[in-house]
Specification:
The protein is an all-alpha fold. It has helices spanning about 5-20, 25-35, 40-60, 65-70, 70-95, 105-110, 115-125, 130-140, 150-175, 175-185, 185-205. Helix 3 (about 40-60) crosses helix 7 (about 115-125), helix 4 packs across helix 8 and helix 5 runs antiparallel to helix 11. The two termini are about 35 Å apart. The mean pLDDT is about 85.
């Protein structure tokens, strides 16, 4: 079997372009980087990347087609995603201004690794546009004759690419000079991120099936 490199390149290019466009995932990794630390941001990035495996799996199994064509299922996912983003917005708006972490904060962060992972995982998983995006991506760019094992490689590669991108974002926003800039704006950082999550919640709530 010859690996379809041209198809793979087209798929990864389309996915990569979509990945770097700022959205809820980017806002979450940014917030984790500034409000917590690099460790929290990386675990959040891992959660986001893992959710891609879920999206890819149900798409390959055909479940994504059912969700994409069922108005009821799509709306359930849409309102769950919007509610989750509103909850994130409230948490951001109620949080104290970000401050340089102490040794105690670092110890608490290590205990919160799975919480950070879950934040990233749910942020991406509950995005109804991800369902439609994967359906469009695989139906338009992947041949029906492509073997199942190759499609699994595609999904795994997309997950690794997304983690690599958000790992870079995490490293950039946790550099001391960048973090100090955010610390100086204090509570305004929480207000901006909170409003951003609210705006994204509205965007998700207004999402329509295609």
């Amino acid at each position: 079997m010859t690996f379809p490199w041209l198809e793979f390149a087209g798929l990864m290019l389309a996915f990569g372009i979509n990945a770097v466009i700022p959205g809820a995932d980017f806002a979450m990794v940014l917030r984790q980087s500034v409000a917590h630390d690099r460790r929290a941001a990386l675990f959040t990035s891992a959660g986001i990347a893992t959710s891609i495996l879920v999206h890819g799996t149900y798409t390959l199994l055909g479940v994504g087609v059912i969700v994409g064509q069922s108005l009821l299922l799509f709306n359930i996912l849409k309102w769950l995603g919007a509610a989750y983003l509103v909850w994130l917005a409230i948490q951001a708006l109620r949080s104290p201004p970000p401050q340089p972490p102490s040794e105690l904060d670092a110890a608490q962060a290590r205990r919160g690794d799975m919480a950070a992972f879950a934040l990233g995982f749910l942020t991406n998983l509950l995005n109804p546009k991800a369902v439609l995006f994967f359906l469009a991506l695989f139906t338009s760019l992947v041949s029906i004759h492509t073997p199942g094992e190759v499609k699994v490689i595609y999904v795994g590669s997309m997950s690794l690419m997304l983690f690599a991108w958000f790992a870079l974002v995490s490293f950039f926003f946790t550099t001391p000079s960048v973090r100090q800039g955010f610390f100086r704006v204090g509570r305004w950082f929480n207000r901006v991120t909170g409003i951003t999550f609210l705006a994204l919640a509205v965007r998700v709530a207004l999402a329509q099936q295609r």
